[in-house]
Here is the input.
Amino acid sequence: MVDLAAMLDDLRAEGAESDRLVASLSAAEWALPTPAPGWTIAHQIAHLAWTDDQVRLAATDPTAFAGAVAVAAADPDGFVDRGAEAGATAPPKDILARWRDGRHAVPELLAALPAGARLPWYGPPMSAASMAGARIMETWAHTQDIADTLGVLRTPTTRLRHIARLGVRARDYSYSVHGLRPPEREFRVELIDPDEPGGTWTHGPEDATERVTGPMLDFCLLVTRRRHPTDLAVRAEGAEAIRWLTITQSYAGPPGAGRAPGRFD
Here is the structure.
């Protein structure tokens, strides 16, 4: 059974880690380009703030949120960028204040949802736990872009399990977004837990012929498309598992350009 309270604590912890990276940056540093094409650090935080605003709207005013979904449907490939661009025009202190307000509010809203309730979203409705997992994943991924920009080496934690879980659950979506038919059988995924020496996180049947193994950090960098597959210690056995490593993504929407091989040590 999902421990929602623990997930929300992890979401708060991810936000706090991000905050520590950007809180003392100068205006010039907020304008630094990140590995995401066209996005500065300001865009990264503005995007997180925008998404938290959408969660709040979905939780408090479903009718207004339905209007936001209709607007997004008219520009499915550009509405996320437009939200980031609009937010990034504000002064850094205002971007930071907006993001802090939203990231503190979202866990409280999710904790207050009735058991079994689902939030409308850009796609299928989401439970509180699913939304918390998605916010952890996105916060971690965009913080990675900021850390890469600043040359900061992050310490992996067991919170990566949420991202790994999303990555394997999104397997079929990864295929469909590339116009491919997903395999019928599950893959076996075995990942080395960064917080537990000798510990392994697993998913899928033990006797599966298609297998993916490696460090959990590398797998999370892969499914969030923050590193090229050839730069990671994730290994696959079986033709479909090998192909999955080239198309996998843990988030909804277009896959984007990803990262070029050899860009990061």
In short: The radius of gyration is 18 Å. The CA atoms of residues 231 and 261 lie 6 Å apart. The chain has a mean pLDDT of 95.
